[in-house]
Design brief:
Structural class: alpha/beta
Number of strands: 6
Strand order of the largest sheet: 1-6-5-2-4-3
Number of helices: 8
Strand content: 5-15%
Order of helices and strands: HHEHEHEHEHEHEH
Radius of gyration: 16 Å
Bound molecules: adenosine monophosphate
Length: 203
């Protein structure tokens, strides 16, 4: 399969070419059409290096075309650490570089919250965050989660292992109109199974 056959449009294809991706990696072949076309939840066993970030980032970016008028975040990616959150944001920016009007924000603990509040005023459609800091924003009412359609938990096993279980489940429960919940995990730990069992509609 090619990226085009999987449903990726011209502007994103341009970015893919620029990044030197020649063909989809296996996890991308499976995940891309699901997140692009279906209201289905999924769990993917995927290690770092398999192309998992692009597997969920490409459909998130592609789908934004249809939703340009929205003023509230449409997609949320949760990551266990600041480093991973920044890495995801950087890859998403690269993939979105030719699509105008896409605004991404990265929220993580340790950075002054006021600076993040300023960036949230620019109405990002995509939010990449660590769970604790996202809950902090939610409690301050500086972010609303009710228009989010896609939620991704990256490195879900690590994130749930690090004591974020409560924050993550609270966040999922605040997303009332969710269409996709994607769990990406290197292992299927007990906590990952629990979240999947509690929130996923299909497996
Ligand atoms: P990840 O597993 O998301 O950490 O990705 C590992 C690396 O593979 C990243 O540097 C990506 O930019 C790169 N990558 C993702 N998809 C592809 C692809 N289809 N072809 C070549 N490289 C890719």
């Amino acid at each position: 399969m090619t990226f085009s056959e999987l449903g990726v449009g011209a502007k994103v294809l341009q970015a893919i070419t620029e990044l030197g991706f020649e063909r989809p990696m296996p996890v991308q072949e499976v995940v891309l059409p699901i997140l692009l076309n279906e209201e289905t939840d999924l769990i993917a066993l995927a290690q770092t290096g398999t192309g998992k970030t692009a597997a969920y980032a490409l459909p998130i970016i592609e789908k934004l075309l249809l939703e340009e008028k929205s003023k509230r975040p449409r997609s949320l990616v949760l990551a266990p650490t600041r480093e991973l959150a920044l890495q995801i944001t950087s890859e998403m920016r690269d993939l979105a570089q030719f699509k105008e009007g896409i605004r991404l924000v990265c929220l993580y603990g340790g950075q002054p919250i006021n600076k993040q509040i300023e960036t949230l005023k620019r109405k990002p459609q995509i939010v990449v965050a660590t769970p604790g800091r996202l809950m902090d924003h939610y409690n301050r009412k500086t972010i609303r989660l009710d228009k989010i359609q896609t939620v991704v938990l990256d490195e879900a096993d690590r994130m749930l292992d690090m004591g974020f279980f409560k924050d993550v489940t609270k966040i999922i429960e605040k997303v009332k109109n969710r269409k996709n919940l994607g769990l990406f995990s290197a292992t299927i730990s007990q906590e990952v199974m629990t979240v999947s069992w509690m929130y996923q509609r299909d497996e």
